UniProtKB/TrEMBL annotation:
It comes from Streptomyces lunalinharesii. Pfam families: adh_short (PF00106). This is SDR family oxidoreductase. Keywords: Oxidoreductase. The keyword Oxidoreductase applies. Residues 19-187 form the Ketoreductase domain. PROSITE patterns: ADH_SHORT (PS00061).
Length: 280
């Protein structure tokens, strides 16, 4: 068996002009900001959209590929069309809300397909090439909610925690081959996602009042959030670091709140998150 290819081709700034980056969900929000930032840094950038032909304003320098993360064959076709990839940014996904007991299981399964299984499968398809070439960067776009769970967002929190878990556990598997898996966890980001979030609340739900309170605070926090370009800058740090960290967090006063997360008991953190969203 051949020896691991540790560090043969570090994916640093010096050789990025020959690198190819694949960014899922690159038609808007964080994905578009990441794709634009990578183009500006000299990468050959492939972006994905469910239907590239419908894009009103494609980003200059980005070649778009169709990708529906709910379609297994489509994921494989996207990976084949992309060819060798040096950087993969798994950004595409869905935001979902609803009281835990009222979430339709079909909706939960769809969310995990889009937010977790699709990203996992695409990563599986590009990792062999990265490993064989001795270099690669995979960035999972997670969420600070994976560390700071919020009521009425259980399915979304769980999906982002699962994505982070895959990256954390597999990180040591691929590190000897010069490949790094990293999770970037944004806090409140002003991307307009509030208008695209899916909601599941039963008619006459006993949770309706508390749910509306949470949602009002959530939407307000996101409207005041940092721009997606700041998340893109953090993604670039992970992509171009010689030894990327397992986790990067950005937005929502990340350094301070993660310090509190380490210092405070879980129950205290839970109360802190709830109060920030108007819940008792």
């Amino acid at each position: 068996m051949s020896a691991p290819a540790t560090g043969r081709h570090p994916a640093g700034a010096g050789d990025r002009g020959g690198r190819t980056a694949l960014v899922t969900g690159a038609s808007s929000g964080i994905g578009a900001a990441v794709a634009a930032a990578l183009v500006a840094r000299g990468y050959r950038v492939l972006g994905t959209s469910r239907d590239p032909s419908t894009l009103a304003a494609p980003l200059p320098g980005v070649r778009y590929l169709p990708l529906d993360l709910a379609d297994e064959a489509g994921i494989e076709a996207c990976a084949a069309a992309a060819g060798p990839v040096d950087v993969l940014v798994n950004n595409a996904g869905e935001s979902q809300n609803g009281p835990f007991e009222e979430l339709p299981m079909a909706a939960v399964r769809r969310l995990f397909q889009l937010n977790v299984f699709g990203a996992v499968r695409l990563t599986q398809l590009v990792l062999p090439g990265m490993r064989e070439r001795g270099h690669g960067r995979v960035v999972m776009i997670g969420s600070m909610l994976a560390s700071f769970p919020l009521a009425y967002r259980s399915s979304y929190v769980a999906s982002k925690a699962a994505l982070k878990g895959f990256a954390d556990a597999a990180r040591r598997e691929v590190a000897p081959y010069g490949v790094a898996l990293t999770t970037v966890e944004p806090g409140s980001i002003a991307t307009g996602i509030s208008a695209r979030r899916t909601h599941y609340v039963a008619d006459g739900s006993p949770f309706a009042d508390a749910y509306r309170t949470m949602l009002t605070a959530l939407d307000a926090n996101e409207a005041r959030g940092i721009p997606p370009e700041k998340v893109a800058a953090t993604v670039l740090k992970a992509v171009e670091a010689a030894r990327p960290r397992p986790h990067y967090a950005v937005g929502s006063n990340a350094p301070a709140v993660f310090l509190l997360r380490r210092l405070l008991p879980d129950a205290a953190v839970e109360r802190m998150v709830a109060r920030r969203h108007g819940l008792r």
